[in-house]
Fold these 2 entries.
Entry 1:
Amino acid sequence: MMINQITEFSRYDKSRLIQAFEEALIDHELYLTATSLYDMGFQRDEEIYLAVERAMKICDMNGLPIREHFRTIYVADDERHTVIRDWKLSKLAYTLVLINGASDNRMVCQLQMELIRNFLRH
């Protein structure tokens, strides 16, 4: 009886190790942040939040696992003495967020037009 319990515990440990390994692989692919979009002309937190929400919906509608492309993180802002919500993003998620920014963002408009031009060429 005791041997079975040790075997079951060993199986449980391996399962947790595999899950931890999978999470590490996912984390490795989430190397971009949503707040870095301020460098791309995004000006307000709300603009980023809405773009992230739209990008998540696109992933969801296409059957892509959200957790593999988006991870909510919290960053301390020492200047404002607050904690800011941010997202770690995969390259795909970052691109989706970027093209789903506000239409008054020059960079977003230029990127959208470039995508359309490329699409029409092929």
Entry 2:
Amino acid sequence: MDYTTLEKIVRESEKPSRFEHSLGVVEVCQVLAKRFRLDVELSRMTGIFHDYARYMDGSDMLAFCLKHGIPVEEEERKSPMLLHGAVAAWYFPRITNIWDERAELAIRHHTLASPGMGALGAVLYVADYSEKGRRHLDDNDRLVIWGKANLEEMVLEVLHREEEYSFTVNRPLARITAQTRDYLLSGGRFAL
């Protein structure tokens, strides 16, 4: 399947505002993939598809994950809407016929991050957080994030911002999010 066909499928499954967000994510994914010499077409495909399951009911997502043996983080169990990435990752190869672990890991971990999400996952994580339609950032914030020297520093910047927000709403970081932060702070790198 090519990107144009997948975009049509996603357009039919998302509300217009969500689809505009997905297009914004694609735009950032494409730029970052080019910059870091990753597979640009695969990054576009993951960008457009990452929220494919966003409108599925939370309890249905949890049941889906349990039925299909998809590991669920404690925070996802408490807030099953976070599982839309896990469900979309399961659907991605079955809809696109692209069986690429990099894409599945990227889509799976775009909500909470993971040390194992890979470079493509880092691209998607940063793009989802910082695309131009996101109102919690201004252009200067985006420049700070996108101006970092590598994907690890970009993800750390996003994680720092997520941690500050979590503190203001009195909610701890998800365990896997904190593990990602610690992994990167200890010099960990995302697999290509």
